[in-house]
Amino acid sequence: MQSFESWDGALLIDKPKGPTSHDVVDAIRRRFQIKKVGHCGTLDPNATGLLIIILGRATKLSERLMSQDKSYEGVVKLGETTDSYDADGELVASLPVPPTTLAELNDLAAATVGDLLQTPPMVSAVKKNGVPLYKLARQGLEVERKPRLIHIYSFQFDTYQEPLGHFAISCTKGTYVRSLAHELGQKLGCGAHLTELRRVASGKFNVSEAIPLDALLAGSGAELEKRIIPFLKLVEA
Fold first, then answer.
1. Same-domain pairing of 152 and 192
2. Is a pLDDT exceeding 70 seen at residue 217?
3. Helix 102-110, helix 177-188: angle, nearest 10
4. Is the pLDDT of residue 21 over 70?
5. Is residue 37 in some structural domain?
6. Strand, helix or coil for residue 38
7. Neighbours of 144 (CB within 10 A)
8. How many of the other CB atoms lie within 10 Å of CB of 25?
């Protein structure tokens, strides 16, 4: 197979549910025989949407591209708490949902807008003494985590039909949206967890410009090449 190691730039992928961000990188590397491939900003396996894949020299821009602000759409389910704060985790509590309106959800969401200190959840890839927290969590351990400063630009629910609320949020990198869902449930007294999450934008890039992963892998190298955002254009991003 022809090698495309000379490619330098980025691809915008619409990640499906299931694979990890690393799985996506590995699939592209193997399918097109590209030596240097990386991604900018991890998406959890069950999250979908925009994943920026970087090739060749563009891997040097990883930190810069990851630092850009993000926008998401998602669904919160009230009344159920999981240990990971999302649908991947084990159910740890189930409580009746109190009478709640869309306006009340938006009041709680609006209270988080601005600067916020957020503690990473135990089920996360953040490392403690070199060990990912999720590995410690699997051992039944809980360790102290340092809060991180994040910023929420906007957080609003569009619809609510018990027990599901659909929302849109814009925030800085490193924001755990599932933690916001968990905290909202705590404030309502019934618990909650994130059931769906889709990244719709990262910096100036939008998922509307992305290609589904399956379509990319089914296409040719020439088709992939047409979708590469050149290195110099990324420098200007």
1. yes
2. yes
3. 120
4. yes
5. yes
6. strand
7. 6
8. 19
